[in-house]
Design goal:
EC 2.5.1.61; five-stranded mixed beta sheet; 13 strands; binds ligand PBG
């Protein structure tokens, strides 16, 4: 029997995510895990370690090579952190499944302070995320932010060596790696809005591959799909500005989706935000996200975006 080929990056987090997808698929369909083959694909975002990704530029630094393999039929499905995906997918590919979302919050890790507020004046914080950098500066303009890349293990070693006083990482990734014991505290979303897509694993497949679409639809989580539809529509409406810090989160209630989106200047001193609610439908979620993104684009004006490119 030919195996179903799952494409993924080779990082520890990506591998954990691919294994989770395989476990869920084999369990829901009563298939042997042997029916799936996990293929590791090298991506540019993993090869470049010495620069912030916003400087490497381009879209899909963590997904391009995987998407090429998918389009070429070398793999049948791709597993991604939705946060790392471009807002517009290559022709012929689509997100066909979202796994139930993990916790969306950012985690604060520091050997010297319990929370961001408790860091000493002028403390050095490591982060290469424009969003985290801007939100930190907004809370604490005195902090010095330095570039901080590499896998979670490398970052923890730098933290222990005292290179920086603190760093921030997605709680979801740390939990998936079984490293949440290293977390000092969690950043509440009202003060520190997560990145669109944070905490959600998705599966991408070919539009015309009906068999794979049906296979993965069985493990789709409807609430995560609603939230991510809103967040990705928001991102798409703001597109063309990968050097603008963007945050956005949709939350599913009993009879409505609530959304909050934000764009910031790199120093965090200027920010525009939008909030809205809509009914529990994919179309309403998409329309709401798009409207919020367009509104922020108008509020901020073109100069705000051009300034950073
Ligand atoms: N850009 C790296 C990346 N992409 C997804 C996650 C975490 C897992 C997730 O959000 O699903 C991370 C690491 C981090 O931000 O700490």
């Amino acid at each position: 029997m030919t195996k179903i080929r799952i494409g993924t990056r080779g990082s520890a987090l990506a591998m954990a995510q691919a294994h989770e997808v395989r476990a869920r698929l084999s369990s829901v369909h009563g298939m042997d895990e042997e029916a799936f083959e996990i293929k590791v694909i090298s991506v540019l975002g993993d090869r470049v370690q010495d620069r912030p990704l916003s400087e490497v530029g381009g879209k899909g630094l963590f997904s391009k090579e995987i998407e090429l393999a998918l389009s070429d039929g070398e793999i049948d499905l791709a597993v991604h952190s939705t946060k790392d995906m471009a807002s517009v997918l290559p022709d012929g590919l689509e997100i066909t499944c979202y796994l139930p979302r993990e916790d969306v919050r950012d985690a604060f890790l520091s050997p010297v302070a319990k929370r961001v507020q408790d860091l000493p004046q002028g403390a050095v914080v490591g982060s290469s995320s424009l969003r985290r950098q801007a939100l930190l500066k907004r809370m604490r303009p005195d902090l010095e932010i330095v570039m901080f890349r590499g896998n979670v293990q490398t970052r923890m070693a730098k933290l222990e060596a005292g290179d920086v006083a603190a760093t921030l990482l997605a709680n979801a990734g740390l939990r998936r790696l079984g490293m949440d014991h290293a977390i000092t505290s969690l950043m509440e979303v009202d003060k520190f809005l997560p990145a669109p897509g944070q905490g959600a694993i998705c599966i991408e497949s070919r539009e015309d591959d009906v068999a794979t679409r049906e296979l993965v639809a069985a493990i789709n989580d409807g609430d995560t799909e609603l939230a991510l539809t809103a967040e990705r529509a928001f991102l798409r409406a703001l597109d063309g500005s990968c050097r603008t810090p963007i945050a956005g989160l949709a939350q599913i209630g009993t009879d409505a989706i609530s959304f909050k989106g934000m764009i910031l200047s790199e120093d965090g001193q200027t920010a525009y935000d939008a909030a809205d609610t809509c009914s529990l439908s994919v179309d309403a979620a998409r329309a709401m996200g798009e409207k919020a993104g367009t509104a922020l684009r108008q509020q901020a004006g073109d100069d705000f975006f051009q300034h950073w490119t």
